């Protein structure tokens, strides 16, 4: 049973299907141990956005207020995509490396654990 | 045994009801909090019309409890002469 | 001849009997179309009993008495400029959240019970739903009346029904009730009558209201307690419903268990708002969220589920998850609102030193370790003139619609992530509870109107955030939103009490 409904074979409208985002897809990015940003952020970006663009142009806008941000060693960053380990390729687009609509990316920055090491 | 509880608004009328509850249920704990009185008891608690009437010095019917009631916990049994709360565990 | 006075039980059975009739020319199934599709089996409606056996005459009599008391206090509050006598203008922000987030739920409950009552073949259940619908209508009306006085003196109250339908954090309570009302009639009764009324409303209407009293808000404590006195009846009814369903047929047990699991978690997530109201928005403290939770959830729910064990009903698994979060919930909630204080129709702020010390004392295992350093950093930023606001929209949970600010209780500095793929699309969640609810009925929750996604789809006004917040949400920017410090609310409060903001004092001293 996919829903308890009065009508048989009831289906619901998928409100967030890719076509509704005018050429963008939504992706989420969370920075581990930096809960000064209370939740992962949601971004609407074209699927062919290069990962390097995400790193250089988008992430600073989201996270640079944190004092740790300037100290991030991007070569040492560990990434997860939808729960699995992930090695992003900066020269490839999001979609080319499996970052599809409503994918969730996490990154951790070894050695940087937030305000006074509190995970904030 | 689980605790049943009832909370009443902290006002004149409730004070008589609390007095009656204390008389009919010697084991109750009465806790005064801002604007409210919480009354707890292991397993069972009863409010008897007659006792409340005696404390108030006038007629009082059980549904009038609702005017000062805030909340309660337990299985409710109500008739013309009493209202009780019970947990059978 | 003397007529015998009827006792309560006789009066009640006469009341209900006279409202029932025989269905002679239509089929029962045609009249009560929604009674069977959820899988619930009712064999004998006459077993339904309202434990309070309230008849209409005594209902009107005592409700009228409650109203008279209530309005006398509203009048006294307004005539004596009660708004000036609350502890602190920050407190009023809890009331703004109440009016925009909770009062419209009372109206939804009215709609829900009016609709649901029509669906039941049993007259006792119909009468109970009718009375509850009337109660709920009374609640929304008295709440609007009480808070209309604050609307004359503080910002952020003006457009509450409009905001309830649109603003991002208000989609949390709104979607909770939409979910319940779009369920079948029995699920609605378990959702609202039992899980919400019995297990959860106490947390909102008892310790928070006691706190309102302690902060000088006579109007709010009075409508709160007056509403909760009706809730005491609703709670009793909620428990009767559960027992009735469980006694009617053994096949009902697993269905009811699943609904209890679901709605306890759904309701608990909505109460996240109450957690932060308790710990952060009451300047005079009565008890912490954790303490209230222990009394009104853990202790009360344990007694209740022990009582239901004889039917084979167990405490939901998610109750353990809720209990595990009790030392974190309010701080995580306040962090979310502090992050997005520019997008809220009420003010946020950093606690004072004294308030932080109270939080440390009440939350010895968590506050200093996880939250104080964050708050001190935010305060430092504010003092440097760079009050922190999160510039990017948050990821939301598909089910509860709250920003994903909850963490893994095994590792409290790690965000809790859950994901499902359904029909080729990804869906993200904050918890096992929210994920399981989606997985069981995905066709319902694929329809969730998630505010962040709606903004990105262009459905909430213009492309700029100012258009979304100002025009689509109708937040008066620079007035209703942002930090309490520097707000017109603060300036008015200081003028009433001849207080000076700290900055001015510093300037004068230098």
From TrEMBL, chain A:
A Pfam family it matches: Phenol_monoox
Q: Which InterPro entries match?
A: Phenol_hydroxylase, Phenol_hydroxylase_sf
Q: Per its record, what are the GO molecular function terms?
A: phenol 2-monooxygenase activity
Tell me the superkingdom of the source: Bacteria
Q: What is this protein called?
A: Phenol hydroxylase
The scientific name of the source species is Pseudohalioglobus lutimaris
TrEMBL record, chain B:
Q: Which GO terms describe its molecular function?
A: monooxygenase activity
Q: Where are the bilayer-spanning segments?
A: none
Keyword check for rRNA-binding, yes or no: no
Q: Name one Pfam family in it.
A: MmoB_DmpM
Which UniProt keywords are given for this protein, alphabetically ordered? Monooxygenase, Oxidoreductase
Q: Which family does it belong to?
A: Belongs to the TmoD/XamoD family.
- By what name is this protein known? Monooxygenase
Q: Which organism is it from?
A: Pseudohalioglobus lutimaris
UniProtKB/TrEMBL annotation, chain C:
The cross-references to Pfam families, in alphabetical order and at most eight, read: Phenol_Hydrox, YHS
What GO molecular function annotations does the UniProt record carry, in alphabetical order? monooxygenase activity
Asked if the keyword Oxidoreductase belongs to this entry, the reply reads yes
Question: By its UniProt entry, which CDD domains does this protein fall under?
Answer: AAMH_A (cd01057)
What are the entry keywords? Monooxygenase, Oxidoreductase
Q: Which residues form the signal peptide?
A: none
List each copy of the YHS domain by range.
Answer: 415-449
Name-wise, this protein is Phenol 2-monooxygenase
What organism does this protein naturally occur in?
Pseudohalioglobus lutimaris
Its ancestry begins with: Bacteria, Pseudomonadati, Pseudomonadota, Gammaproteobacteria, Cellvibrionales
């Amino acid at each position: 049973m996919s829903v308890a409904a009065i009508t048989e074979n009831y289906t619901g409208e998928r409100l967030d299907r890719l076509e509704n985002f005018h050429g963008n897809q939504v992706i989420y990015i969370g920075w581990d141990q930096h809960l000064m940003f209370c939740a992962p952020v949601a971004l609407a970006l074209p699927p062919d956005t290069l990962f390097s663009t995400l790193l250089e142009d988008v992430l600073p806008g989201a996270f640079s207020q944190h004092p740790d941000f300037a100290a991030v060693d991007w070569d040492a960053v560990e990434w997860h995509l939808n729960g699995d380990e992930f090695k992003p390729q900066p020269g490839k687009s999001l979609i080319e490396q499996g970052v599809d609509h409503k994918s969730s990316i996490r990154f951790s920055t070894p050695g940087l654990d937030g305000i006074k090491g509190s995970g904030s | 045994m689980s605790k049943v509880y009832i909370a009443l608004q902290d006002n004149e009328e409730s004070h008589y009801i609390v007095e009656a509850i204390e008389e009919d249920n010697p084991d109750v704990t009465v806790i005064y909090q801002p604007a409210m009185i919480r009354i707890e008891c292991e397993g069972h608690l009863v409010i008897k019309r007659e006792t409340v009437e005696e404390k108030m010095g006038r007629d009082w019917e059980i549904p009038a409890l609702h005017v000062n009631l805030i909340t309660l916990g337990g299985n409710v049994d109500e008739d013309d002469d009493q209202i009780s709360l019970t947990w059978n565990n | 001849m003397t007529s015998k006075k009827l006792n309560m039980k006789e009066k009640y059975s006469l009341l209900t009997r006279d409202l029932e009739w025989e269905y002679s020319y239509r089929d029962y199934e045609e009249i009560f179309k929604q009674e069977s599709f959820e899988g619930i089996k009712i064999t004998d409606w006459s077993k339904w009993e309202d434990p309070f056996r309230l008849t209409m005459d005594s209902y009107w009599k005592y409700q009228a008495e409650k109203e008279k008391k209530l309005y006398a206090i509203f009048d006294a509050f307004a005539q004596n400029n009660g708004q000036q006598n609350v502890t602190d203008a920050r407190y009023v922000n809890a009331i703004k959240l109440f009016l925009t987030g909770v009062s419209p739920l009372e109206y939804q409950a009215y709609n829900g019970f009016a609709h649901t009552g029509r669906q039941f073949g049993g007259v006792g259940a119909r009468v109970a739903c009718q009375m509850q619908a009337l109660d709920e209508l009374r609640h929304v009306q008295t709440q609007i009346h009480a808070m209309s006085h604050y609307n004359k003196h503080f910002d952020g109250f003006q457009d509450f029904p409009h905001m309830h339908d649109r603003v991002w954090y208000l989609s949390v309570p709104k979607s909770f009730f939409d979910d319940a009302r779009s369920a079948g009639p029995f699920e609605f009764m378990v959702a609202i009558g039992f899980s919400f009324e019995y297990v959860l409303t106490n947390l909102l209407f008892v310790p928070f209201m006691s706190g309102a009293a302690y902060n000088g808000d006579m109007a709010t404590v009075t409508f709160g307690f007056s509403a909760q006195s009706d809730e005491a009846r609703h709670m009793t009814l909620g428990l009767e419903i559960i027992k009735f369903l469980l006694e009617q047929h053994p096949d009902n047990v697993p269905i009811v268990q699943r609904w209890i699991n679901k709605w306890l978690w759904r309701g608990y997530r909505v109460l996240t708002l109450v957690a932060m109201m308790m710990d952060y928005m009451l300047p005079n403290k009565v008890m912490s969220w954790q303490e209230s939770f222990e009394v009104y959830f853990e202790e009360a729910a344990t007694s209740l589920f022990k009582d239901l064990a004889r039917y084979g009903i167990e405490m939901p698994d998610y109750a353990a998850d809720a209990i595990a979060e009790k030392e974190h919930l309010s701080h995580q909630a306040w962090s979310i609102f502090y992050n997005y204080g520019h997008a809220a129709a009420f003010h946020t702020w950093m606690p004072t030193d004294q308030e932080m010390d109270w939080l440390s004392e009440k939350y010895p295992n968590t506050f200093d370790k996880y939250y104080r350093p964050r708050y001190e950093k935010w305060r430092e930023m504010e003092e440097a003139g760079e009050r922190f606001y999160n510039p990017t929209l948050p990821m939301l949970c598909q089910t509860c619609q709250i920003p994903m600010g909850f963490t893994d209780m095994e590792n409290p500095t790690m965000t809790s992530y859950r994901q499902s793929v359904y029909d080729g699309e990804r869906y993200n969640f904050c918890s096992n509870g929210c994920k399981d609810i989606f997985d069981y009925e995905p066709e319902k929750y694929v329809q969730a109107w998630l505010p962040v996604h709606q903004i990105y789809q262009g459905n909430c006004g213009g492309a700029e955030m100012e258009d979304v917040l100002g025009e689509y949400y109708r937040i008066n920017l620079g007035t209703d939103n942002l930090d309490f410090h520097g707000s017109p609310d603060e300036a008015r409060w200081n003028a009433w009490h001849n207080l000076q903001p700290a900055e001015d004092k510093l300037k004068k001293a230098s």
